[in-house]
C-alpha cells in the first residue's frame, strides 16, 4: 500500500502560504483523548469546509476510537487515524477534495490531512505538525497538504508523543514501540450549520 504521507521530508515546496487567522469561537472543537493525555483541536470550517466535514464524520462515527498514532517523526509530525495497535489498517470512506490553497499553513501545532501522491486521496488519516513545515503547503500548480485546524490545548501531549521511541513494524517505519492510542475522539463544540 502507498504510505499516506509519502517522503514528506524531501518535498521542495516553497512557503507561499502565510499563517491565517485563528479560527473563530464558532468553529468545531474536538478532543482526542490519548494514552498520553488529551489534545484539543479547533477546526476551521470557514477555510477548510470539506476537510472539516470529513474529519467530523469520522469522529462522530467513532472511527478514531482505539486507533494509534502510527507514524512519529521527531521535529516533524505525528500521524494517526488509520491503524489499530496491531497495525491493521481500517476501512475508510470516499476521499476528500484537496483544500491546500485555503490560506492555512503547515506550521507547528496545526492539523492537516495525510494523503498519497494523489492530492485528492485524503480519507481518515491526519497529522499534527510539531515544527513549521511550510514546505508541505500548496503552491500554484502543486497541491500541498490541507491544514484544517490547530491544537488549542494539549500541545505538551503532542510533543510528548513526538518524543516516544519508534521502530519498524513490517513495512511501516517510525512506529512507536509502545502504542500511543487515541482512546476516544469527541466533538466538544459543533461547527455552525451550513447556510
Automatic annotation (TrEMBL):
It is an enzyme of class 5 (isomerase). Pfam families: Pro_isomerase (PF00160). The keyword 4Fe-4S does not apply. Residues 29-187 form the PPIase cyclophilin-type domain. Residues 1-20 form the signal peptide. GO terms for molecular function: isomerase activity. Its EC number is 5.2.1.8. Keywords: Isomerase, Rotamase, Signal. It comes from the Bacteria. Belongs to the cyclophilin-type PPIase family. This is peptidylprolyl isomerase.
